[in-house]
């Protein structure tokens, strides 16, 4: 009984047993999962460019 609760708690929120989903742009084909990862990477890169660096305390 306890094993079924543990396996249910560790289950993925998305069914990973099915075929992958792909996006097509002419000759370019990319999976949706990879497209999400690339989008997050671009967002983090843009945030790193826009957000200021932390300022150090004044030197004495």
Provide an overview of this structure.
With 60 residues, the protein is an alpha+beta fold. Helices cover 45% and strands 13% of the residues. The longest helix has 19 residues, at 32-50. The model has no long low-confidence stretch (mean pLDDT 81).
> Into which percent range does the helicity of residues fall?
40-55%
The total strand number stands at: 2
Largest sheet: 2 strands, antiparallel
Distance between the termini: 65 Å
Number of helices: 2
Question: How would you briefly describe this protein structure?
Answer:
The chain is α+β, with helices and mostly antiparallel strands.
Tell me the layout of helices and strands.
Blueprint: H1 2-9, E1 22-25, E2 28-31, H2 32-50
Antiparallel strand pairs: 1-2
What descriptors fit this protein?
60 residues; alpha+beta; two-stranded antiparallel ribbon; 13% strand; elongated
């Amino acid at each position: 009984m306890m094993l079924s609760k543990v396996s249910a708690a560790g289950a993925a929120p998305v069914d990973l047993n099915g075929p992958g989903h792909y996006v097509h742009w002419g000759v370019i084909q990319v999976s949706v999962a990879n497209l999400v990862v690339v989008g997050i990477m671009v967002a983090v890169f843009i945030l790193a460019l826009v957000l200021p660096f932390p300022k150090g305390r004044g030197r004495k």
